[in-house]
Amino acid sequence: MAELTGLADDRALLGRTSTAERVSDILRSRIAEGYFPPGTRLSEDSIGGALGVSRNTLREAFRLLTHERLLVHELNRGVFVRVLTVEDVEDIYRTRTLVECAVVRGLGKPPYAVDGLAKAVADGQRAAREGDWKGVSTANIHFHRELVALAGSARTDELMRSVFAELRLAFHVVDDPQRLHEPYLARNREILRTLQEGDRDGAERLLAVYLDDSLTGLVDVYGRRVADGGQGIG
Fold first, then answer.
1. In the chain, fewer beta carbons within 10 Å around the N or the C end?
2. Torsion angle of the four alpha carbons 48, 50, 51, 56, in this order, in degrees rounded to the nearest 10
């Protein structure tokens, strides 16, 4: 019973941990939305006061997001939203290609559960009509999250949640989001249509080219944006 006594002493950690996780969820969403752009210093006092959480809880949330590569701690300076390197972007796309193409390749027999994909496509088209290119970017990320979800794997979903959140750090630095995202509205529709037709192999081929083209385009505009050392970031 001594083990149980010691375990009971840890009960308070459960509350702290769950609170820190909830705080990290909030901050992850805000970072993904661009509320805290890359290069922004996160103030413990301001954020802790706004959320009504302790300094220790907030620091644990920061630690979780640092582990996810969304934040970086700089000695004697504080915690900042990461500014990705071009190499980071290339590595993100390497991971995306490995995972997303494998998900499509591993689909069973049709029909496929593509309602989530269809909704993301519709959301992207609506945002484009309204000139909301940030909304187009969000819908595009949702499209790829729904694509990954076709695997039915909670572990894969969790892995790619972090990858997509990190990817959006690069998107927030790009100064012409329409040019970056508009071409992929039609390509998302094409992948959706191919899956609706039950053509898994065709969808994988489209996706592989899609991701390769997306990487080339993003590296081009992102590389020029950060080539001067990140001027205008943060």
1. N
2. 10
